[in-house]
Amino acid sequence: MTEYDYHDWGLLVDGTFGPSESGDRFDVENPADGTTIGSAPDATAGDMDAAIEAAEDAYDDTWQHVSARNRVEYLLEIADRIEAEFDEFVRIETLENGKPLYESENDVEEAIQGYRYYAGAADKHHGDTIPEKEGLFDYTVNEPYGVVGVIIPWNWPPMHSADFTAAPLAAGNTVVIKPAPETPLSTLKMAEIWADVLPDGVVNVVTGGTPPGARLTSHETVNKIAFTGHDETGKKVMQAAAENITDVMLELGGKNPNLVLPDADIDDAVDGAFHGIFDGQGQVCASGSRLLLHDDVYDEFVQKLVARTREMTIGPGTDEETDLAPLVSQAQYDKVTDYVDIGKDEGATVLYEGTVPDDVHADGYYVPPVIFGDVDPEMRIAREEIFGPVLSVFRYESVEEAIEMANDTEYGLTGAVWSTNMEVANRVARRLEAGLVFVNNFVNGFLGAPFGGYGKSGIGRKLGFEETMGEFTRTKTIRTAIAGSEPGDLDEYYD
Ligand code: NAD
């Protein structure tokens, strides 16, 4: 039994909460102890059809007639309402995702800021005017797509729910959002606010697994898909969207390099490497999962990093002392612990492997931190996204070799470089094939700055103002025959 009871929420379709057409629900677990804390409707493809129809009607009948200035007001009110229930959002996130409370607080704060940021963007994404041949005048308008389909993962549910609704709404679209089955409750909590504040059908929430997700990506009414998740799922999304030539934005995984040059400030870089891999229990697309150390600093760096890692407190996210909380699910636990075994089998050196304290719950999905050393670039732990608190450390002898190793990946989401020589640091930053490069920091949190991947890390950019508003609008050029573009004496009109 559990003291938590989040069992009442239904699907949000056309402003009304209701059951799935099958009546089935799936349980939502607390990863800290395996107890059930709630449930959500297990939607079918038919439920998704109903939600898409509601979003289309809302776009046609209501939302497209709401001015950009008025959309600002709606978005600001949603931000205020999330803020008013800050503690409840934090609690739900830690309960369903497992992460420490301070991480959930950052996430919910990002959700609030996201709504405020995109509220400010709603009436500022202007078109252009273009010189044309004499007698013609071009101007562009940025028009919404209509219905935008959003699919999100489980690692930052409030922030993803907020950013991927606020931006399309600001741009004038209506939305159908499908959260991950591991963490539907934050989105359903936010659905109460959308239902209260917005006209019916402007945001619709469909919970469940692959069937409703696959339907959303293949539906001909949906004109834009914003997907965040694994690259293998991203491929399926892209294939499904290809049937209707639907535009896709894909925010996928990473195997991000963190380069420490021989002249780096070692203590700063150790701190950055530590947070870069262990924040979010390593379940972070942007995490610095490949640490590249110059031979001159390898031993000192590893010794300091291991000492720091040894001090981590492993425990439930609800405990204020916790640094490293459980992973989100049994599936994640199995995947990450398999990779730890793979790394050992491949012959990587175990520089450090933590232990889970006896007093944490035996049914929780706790994986202690693992640091592998002298990793070979061909090993699977060097190439595949593990998505857990497992770090692969590489040794290099020249900066050129390090850059080659850093770019030897199919992914390209983030990268970092540490050096006290800013000229070198900036030159390395330009050479890294990634959408975001950190210089002498590893600070995630990107609102305002474009974020997205190279290679298999994705297509499109979120969070930057122009880029994101561009993602959720289509440009139309209007060429008008216009009188009055000829030079000459205006008095001839009055002679
Ligand atoms: P996932 O791909 O397994 O699932 C993501 C979402 O897709 C879920 O809602 C899931 O139900 C849905 N889904 C599954 N099959 C589908 C299908 N055939 N059609 C449509 N939807 C489908 O990913 P996950 O395990 O939830 O999340 C972890 C992954 O997300 C990691 O690879 C991580 O790097 C990535 N991620 C990327 C970013 C980014 O901004 N680039 C941010 C967070 C997470």
Describe the SSE topology.
Elements: E1 11-13, E2 16-18, E3 25-29, E4 36-41, H1 45-61, H2 68-84, H3 86-97, H4 101-121, E5 129-131, E6 136-144, E7 147-151, H5 157-170, E8 174-178, H6 185-197, E9 203-205, H7 210-218, E10 222-228, H8 231-242, E11 247-251, E12 257-260, H9 266-278, E13 290-294, H10 298-310, H11 330-346, E14 349-353, E15 370-373, H12 380-383, E16 390-396, H13 399-407, E17 414-418, H14 422-431, E18 436-439, E19 458-459, H15 465-471, E20 473-481
Parallel strand pairs: 7-8, 7-10, 8-9, 10-11, 12-13, 12-17, 13-16, 15-16, 17-18
Antiparallel strand pairs: 1-2, 3-4, 5-6, 6-20, 11-19, 14-15
Overview of the molecule:
The longest helix has 21 residues, at 101-121. The termini are far apart. Helix 2 (68-84) packs antiparallel against helix 4 (101-121). By secondary structure, the chain is an alpha/beta fold. It has helices at 45-61, 68-84, 86-97, 101-121, 157-170, 185-197, 210-218, 231-242, 266-278, 298-310, 330-346, 380-383, 399-407, 422-431, 465-471; strands spanning 11-13, 16-18, 25-29, 36-41, 129-131, 136-144, 147-151, 174-178, 203-205, 222-228, 247-251, 257-260, 290-294, 349-353, 370-373, 390-396, 414-418, 436-439, 458-459, 473-481. The relative contact order is 0.14. The chain has 2 domains: 11-252 and 453-478, Aldehyde Dehydrogenase, Chain A, domain 1; 257-439, Aldehyde Dehydrogenase, Chain A, domain 2 (3-Layer(aba) Sandwich), CATH 3.40.309.10. It is built from 15 helices and 20 strands. The radius of gyration is 25 Å and the shape is globular. Nicotinamide-adenine-dinucleotide binds at residues 151-155, 178, 180-181, 209-210, 213-214, 217, 228-230, 233, 236-237, 251-254, 285, 385, 387, 413, 453, 458.
